[in-house]
Amino acid sequence: MALRAKRAAKRRAALTRGRILRAAITLADRDGIESLSMRKLGTKLGVEAMSLYNHCRNKVDMLDGMVDIVFGEIDLPANGADWQTAMRKRAISARQVLLRHPWAIGLMESRATPGPATLRHHDSVLGSLRTAGFSVDMAAHAYSILDGYIYGFTLTELALPFSTSEGAPAVAEMAGTIMEGFRPGQYPHLAEMAVDRAMKPDYKYGDEFEYGLDLILDGIERAL
Amino acid sequence: MALRAKRAAKRRAALTRGRILRAAITLADRDGIESLSMRKLGTKLGVEAMSLYNHCRNKVDMLDGMVDIVFGEIDLPANGADWQTAMRKRAISARQVLLRHPWAIGLMESRATPGPATLRHHDSVLGSLRTAGFSVDMAAHAYSILDGYIYGFTLTELALPFSTSEGAPAVAEMAGTIMEGFRPGQYPHLAEMAVDRAMKPDYKYGDEFEYGLDLILDGIERAL
DNA sequence: GGTCCCGCACTTACACCGTAAACTTGAGGA
DNA sequence: TCCTCAAGTTTACGGTGTAAGTGCGGGACC
């Protein structure tokens, strides 16, 4: 009866696996994954750390859940479009999601058990390719190369010592200070690259992404 | 004078940044990076944890050093060969090194300060491309796409729930048990892929690597 | 309405972590 | 011989994940 009202009247909304995971993602986005602890997460939810263990088997299980939510944020390939535009949109969405949650890509390494959103995503991508006429082998090739590129590019991008959103001034400065420490001519090609590109005022490494993506999509089409 | 002999006569060989880093890499390779602690590393070297801080500013500095050593293990592109074979060999070497040190790829994400071996490697690759006639822009494109693919593919490969060396039986079994939990037809394309490929006795995901690599190399050549 | 049960949050405790700060020690140079 | 100083040790502190036990409050039954 007034069960709902009573629940709401309790000092805090009911703790839930979903609520925990969402709060954990928010915290990880803001402060980085290495600073995410059960105690801090509990505090944020107005609860003791140990209460979280009523909803997550352990921290690893929680991280699994977080990764699966992130995967769920990636756009699934649209059904109607041709495979190239479908894969292109999916790749761009995936990169955006991974940039939004920089910790997620580093976690993938150790996630052994894919969650439902992850599986649904994979199934949907494979379905899109098969519908477009890809053989099973060719779909596997295409998926492998595309996902490899998406993850790897974004990983590299995140490793760069500046936030992608602030952009050019930061990287120019950074490249400058890094190069200062060298003997002149020690890394000539690196220096050339820095002067010609990285230190230009409108340089954004992220712009490279679509160049490589299109090169790969062309290559796949030709291989069909 | 007999300084050398005296040093050697001390109960243990002198502690050195290099010796620490090599021991840390061995430990990380064996037990995983998350289990590498200063105390365990000290014990392995016959020394207290705090002694390590005489040679490494802190743990992050030590991890930086480890990553740089790993980078140094990757073959530099040979000078004489044409750029395609040079890049091909480098990519294959990089994948092998990263598989040997699975923790390294996850660490790259947060390394802000590249070490000397890392810089030398980048400079050498860029030099190889520029010598082959690539423009600065085209060299940047090629490097970005190749490295993205190498890291991403290897990351994906490491995320698979089986060691690449043991190969087919493990993944077949794994794919089987994962699929068991689903409603039939829930992930039809995933199931098709599993049956057609992953559960075949001689399936190795690693074989995909060179397919994608060659597709990318072809694409780059055509873009020249 | 009274009773019981049990889910869920809490408390306590433990082993481990990175590292700051103060100490000991032993060899090299003056 | 004494001083200096680099390099290893000891101690300590605040943090971590989580096992184990406690207690409360609402829902379900008699």
**Number of separate helices of chain A:** 11
Characterize the quaternary organization of these chains: homodimer
Query: What is the CA-based Rg of chain A, rounded?
Result: 22 Å
Q: Give the largest interface.
A: A-B, 56 and 57 residues
> Secondary-structure element sequence of chain A?
HHHHHHHHHHH
Contiguous low-pLDDT stretches of chain A (5 residues minimum) are: 1-11
Which fold name fills CATH's third level, the topology of one domain in chain A?
A: Tetracycline Repressor, domain 2
Name of the level-1 CATH class of one domain in chain A: Mainly Alpha
Distance between the termini of chain A: 62 Å
Estimate the mean pLDDT confidence of chain A. 87
As a percent range, the share of helical residues of chain A equals 55-70%
DSSP E strands of chain A, number = 0
* Outline of chain A: flat
What is the CATH homology-level superfamily of one domain in chain A?
A: Tetracycline Repressor, domain 2
How would a crystallographer describe the biggest sheet of chain A?
Answer: none
Could you give the topology of this structure?
The structure is a homodimer of 224-residue chains.
Chain A: H1 3-9, H2 17-31, H3 38-44, H4 59-73, H5 83-100, H6 102-108, H7 116-131, H8 136-159, H9 168-180, H10 188-198, H11 208-223
Helix pairs in contact in A: 2-4, 4-7, 5-8, 5-11, 7-8, 8-11
Chain A binds a DNA duplex (30 and 30 nucleotides) through loops.
